[in-house]
Write a structure and sequence with these properties.
Jelly Rolls, 2 domains, nine-stranded antiparallel beta sheet, six-stranded antiparallel beta sheet, 34% strand, globular, binds 2-(3,6-dihydroxyphenyl)acetic acid, binds fe (ii) ion, Homogentisate 1,2-dioxygenase, dioxygenase, phenylalanine catabolism, oxidoreductase
């Protein structure tokens, strides 16, 4: 029997079996899938156990302050330089990178789409990615892209890394296995996972579905981190121990494989004779993680009024300007509505930040109809929006007893930069041309005489 501390460090040989995880956010982890594979007391021994190669993967400049300094040490069958090398150009025409400002037929306005249609042919996760919006500039490491994905085949001998940013993956239908260099994560709808910039991975399907669908936030900027809680204190919102980082697991596979990369917006590929997921042991704090949104502990209005949605921030990617996120990942989880003498749904508003929303399950309280699981909406910089007419009517006239908003999970990628539509998004067949009509019932009630109308 392994001692508990040894179990936490233990990884998994051969890449078979269910994933194991270590709890915590931003921890310095250590894990090995073969006993003794992880050097102790130093990073770079003259010779590593099992003939492994030592390699450092840096997620921050070497000299970044401690709070943001991230790197991991990987002990692997071959160094990555034998997995990559000179690439040849390939194309993924639907995965776009900022700056990507295109002329399209759609006039400016509030936009909403139904879910991506299921793929007509077989395609894997990479092939199924469709960029909806881009913002900022990946070349200056600022901004983000909002993607939707729909796929129905596994990545088997294809591996990928994104040099342009980290990937926050939000499944909506169908669980996925994300096998990264540092280990593997099984991610079901209601869970999210994050693959760090530059880390190789592949995605395979879990369970039986017709389509595996979801959303991705590609963050070009500083890494997502937990927001400060201010006066909320040391608990609630997303708690660090609910984040799970995989234990080491590797594939020892000597068959033809392909490594693909997105680098400054263009795609490249190299053929190799083995799996690049050959990390037997690792330690450090630059690591993938997953998180179950159901473990988010919301804090909200317990007397009156509707607070800003920043109270529901799961992860924030700072921009360098205080309080001005490059991108926030915000959720609208199940919660009790108890506010007295209050219009409880979101107020009508205009916002300097740009809001891309998706729905994982259930219904969103500001939109009674039309915003469906797998659907998307875009309320761009300074464009007015808020509850639809029927939601307004119900919320202004309903009895204000405590009500539980249950079985609901919407989210928002909210960025400081305007989000530019791709041609794909502008022409997507599930675009709802009548979206604006959801507000058309908001009639004038003012007649110049005092009194509640
Ligand atoms: O527009 C939206 O539906 C998202 C949102 C929710 C909320 O409660 C307050 C502001 C906001 O942008
Ligand atoms: Fe909004």
């Amino acid at each position: 029997m392994l001692e508990k501390s040894e179990q936490r460090r233990a990884g998994e040989a051969g890449g078979q079996g269910s994933p194991g995880y270590m709890p915590g956010f931003g921890n310095d982890f250590e894990t090995e899938s073969l006993p003794g594979a992880l050097p102790q007391g130093q990073n770079s021994p003259q010779k590593c156990e099992y003939g492994l190669y030592a390699e450092q993967l840096s997620g921050s400049p070497f000299t970044a302050p401690r709070g943001t300094n991230e790197r991991s040490w990987l002990y692997r069958i071959r160094p990555s330089v034998r997995h990559t090398g000179r690439f040849r150009k390939i194309d993924y025409p639907h995965w776009r990178t900022a700056p990507h400002i295109v002329e399209h037929s759609l006039s400016l306005g509030q936009l909403r789409w139904g879910p991506l249609p299921a793929p007509a042919e077989e395609m894997n996760f990479l092939e199924g990615i469709r960029t909806m919006t881009t913002a900022g500039d990946a070349l200056t490491q600022a901004g983000m892209a909002a993607h939707a994905y729909a796929f129905n085949a596994d990545m088997v001998d294809d591996y990928f890394f994104n040099a342009d940013g980290e990937l926050l993956i939000v499944p909506e239908t169908g669980g996925i296995r994300v096998f990264t260099e540092l280990g593997k994560m099984d991610v079901e709808p209601s869970e999210i996972c994050l693959v760090p910039r530059g880390m190789m991975f592949k995605v395979t399907r879990l369970g039986e579905e017709k389509v595996w669908r979801g959303y991705i936030c590609e963050n070009y900027g500083a890494k997502f981190t937990l927001p400060d809680r201010g006066p909320i204190g040391a608990n609630c919102l997303a708690n660090p121990r609910d984040f799970k980082t995989p234990v080491a697991a590797y594939e020892d596979k000597e068959t033809p494989c392909r490594v693909q990369v997105k680098w400054c917006g263009s795609f490249h590929m190299v053929e190799i004779g083995h799996s690049p997921l050959d990390v037997v042991a690792w330690h450090g704090n630059y690591a993938p993680y997953k998180y179950d949104l159901k473990t988010y502990s919301p804090v909200g209005a317990i007397l009156f009024d509707h607070p800003d949605p920043s109270i529901f921030t799961v992860l924030t990617a700072p921009s360098g300007e205080e309080g001005t996120a490059n991108v926030d990942f915000v959720i609208f989880p199940p919660r009790w509505l108890v506010a007295e003498h209050t219009f409880r749904p979101p107020w009508y508003h205009r916002n300097i930040m740009s809001e891309f929303m998706g729905l994982i399950y259930g219904r969103y309280d500001a939109k009674e109809e039309g915003f469906v699981p797998g659907g998307m909406s875009l309320h761009n910089m300074m464009l007015a929006h808020g509850p639809d007419s029927s939601g307004f009517g119900k919320a202004s006239n309903g009895e204000l007893k405590p009500v539980k908003l249950d079985n609901t999970m919407a989210f928002m990628f909210e960025t400081r930069f305007p989000q530019q539509l791709t041609t794909f998004a502008a022409e997507l067949e599930t675009l709802q041309d009548d979206y604006m009509d959801c507000w058309s019932g908001l009639e004038r009630k003012f007649d110049g005489t005092p009194g509640i109308k």
